[in-house]
Design brief:
about 30% strand, globular, 6 helices, alpha+beta
């Protein structure tokens, strides 16, 4: 990740679809910010603070689980920010779950998911066009269930850690057979550039949006 060349290029939508996508992107980033704060505030999640201090990237889904289906904000959409070699956090790019299917899940009303990318290998996998998810999240049942799991893809091992908070009785879930891929529509709308992507925003550091500065500043404390 490289943020040295970033220029502020705020979206100036020319149509209703672009304007709607920009609002959705801004709302998603705000909700992802609150989701990460929620994880940090949980006593049972002290591990996430330690891991954030050395993570290469964070991917947050302010998601909802209902009747065994994974349903996230804007249809299973999340936000990723990465840490450059100089320690600075990049501007965000947007991702979406595709065909996300949860296995056993008993009595959970909703769930929030945060994925911590612990090294360059994991980050490289997420930057690819489509990242295949093979992760299990196991937790205890309770009024406010908690679960901590790790990615279990054939190539990544534990390079990506997954955390989940679930309201209601949470007996465990699996995200096998799902994939995560860039949401180009939200990326273009948020930065107002046709070539806004994970590559140009996170790797090349070409674009920025002041709307994300408070989120990046928050991550700096880890």
């Amino acid at each position: 990740a490289n943020v040295k060349k970033a220029e502020y290029q705020i979206a100036n939508p020319s149509g209703s679809d672009m304007a709607k996508n920009r609002r959705n992107a801004e709302r998603l980033l705000n909700e992802s910010f609150y989701t990460l704060q929620d994880f940090e505030s949980q006593e049972n999640y002290s591990e996430i603070k330690k891991d954030l201090g050395r993570a290469r990237a964070v991917l947050i889904f302010p998601s909802v689980i209902n009747a065994g289906l994974f349903v996230g904000v804007s249809g299973g959409t999340g936000v990723m920010l990465a840490r450059a070699k100089n320690g600075k956090w990049s501007y965000p790019t947007f991702y979406t779950y595709n065909q996300a299917s949860l296995g056993l899940q008993i009595g959970a009303d909703s769930s929030k998911v945060t994925m911590l990318v612990m090294n360059g290998k994991g980050l490289g996998a997420l930057i690819s066009d489509r990242f295949q998810v093979g992760a299990s999240v196991k937790g205890a049942a309770g009024e406010q269930g908690e679960a901590i799991g790790y990615s279990a893809t054939s190539n990544l091992g534990n390079d990506i850690k997954m955390f989940a908070i679930s309201k209601g009785a949470f007996m465990g879930a699996t995200l096998d057979s799902s994939s995560i891929e860039p949401d180009d529509n939200l990326n273009r709308a948020y930065y107002g550039r046709d070539d806004a992507s994970t590559q140009t925003v996170i790797i090349d550091g070409l674009y920025a949006n002041k709307h994300a500065d408070s989120f990046r500043k928050y991550l700096d404390k880890f």
